[in-house]
Write a structure and sequence with these properties.
This protein has 87 residues and is an alpha+beta fold. The protein is 37% helix and 31% strand. The N and C termini lie far apart (75 Å).
Length: 87
């Protein structure tokens, strides 16, 4: 019996399971809880199944923008711009 999916690295037959997937996105750790993953028993290649990849990219872009905005606000506060802006 053949596999429904084959490993992209060794063409083996990966096993499917659910678990947390951890990534590093631009230096920020990101965890996707309870996602389907496929692990190849031959080469241990792991593939995460993301059914709404466009939605994930949108969330990551939003988080990146928020982090950039927070960083800019923090730099302004450290430089004393809050006092001059409030006056």
């Amino acid at each position: 019996m053949g596999c429904r999916m084959t490993c992209t690295r060794c063409r083996g037959c990966p096993n499917s399971c659910r678990g947390d997937a951890e990534f590093d996105v631009g230096g920020t750790p990101v965890t996707l809880p309870g996602v389907q993953t496929r692990v190849c028993p031959s080469c241990v290649e792991r593939e995460v199944v993301v059914p709404n990849i466009d939605g994930l990219h949108r969330v990551l872009r939003d988080l990146e923008r928020q982090a950039d905005w927070s960083l800019r606000l923090d730099v302004r506060a450290q430089r004393g711009w809050w006092q001059s802006a409030a006056a």
